[in-house]
């Protein structure tokens, strides 16, 4: 699902691209815009993609769980401004958190053009979107320094396998973004209460959702960031989920960034969120895989 601000943003981006094709001489950037670091593509394309920096965060923002502090969104915004990632994957957020962090990313992106998307978890008791204590929808989100691929749509859903004793039914979310070349970015927050449910959700995400995305004509490289709750990257349960040729980076236990063979993990590190949530941030830098070295 997309929020209203995203639909307006996408319209603005498409309009700008059309104007450029018609011969516009340049684009006006926001007053708070900064120049992109060397080797990283401009949001409207035209440069072969270099390293892609992915920031995964679980903000424990519902107001319900014991890890809630009320400070994690502000701390996440500070990290985004300091690190200027290309893609941000978000778990345990309220819908307004995504809007606030979209603004933080816009502060460090040339022209302030960014994309966001949000998917609510489902309340198993009512069938309605799960809610934060403040009444906002609760779930997962995506941010991108690039606009959505024109004509594409957000892919999202609720897993068929859920823990019947947990009212929060887990979700997944994917979006095609117009990097050069295009990239599909996904996020999810898998169950933690029952291991067999977590594994079933992981297998559905990679074996059904991502397999379908990868089977499309001209399928883009895919990056998934999320709280998979399946241990470190070499755990047997996690490895049983991942497709052949994928590469994974993790924070040592719960959060992961998984990439398809078009990318390799160049580096990864955790970032202390100063006690504002019970998870560190995980920042992963991806490098394009030389075509001759890709595996199936």
What do these coordinates show?
GO terms for molecular function: endonuclease activity. Residues 1-33 form the signal peptide. InterPro entries: Endo/exonu/phosph_ase_sf (IPR036691), Endo/exonuclease/phosphatase (IPR005135). This is Endonuclease/exonuclease/phosphatase family protein. It holds the Pfam family Exo_endo_phos. This protein has 296 residues and is α+β, with helices and mostly antiparallel strands. It has one domain: Deoxyribonuclease I, Chain A. 23% of the residues lie in helices and 28% in strands. The chain contains 5 helices and 14 strands. The strands form 3 sheets. A 6-stranded mixed sheet has the order 3-5-2-1-14-13. It has a 6-stranded mixed sheet with strand order 6-8-9-10-12-11, covered by helices on one side. The chain has a two-stranded antiparallel ribbon with strand order 4-7. Strand 1 (52-58), helix 2 and strand 2 form a beta-alpha-beta unit. Helix 2 packs parallel to helix 3 (95-106).
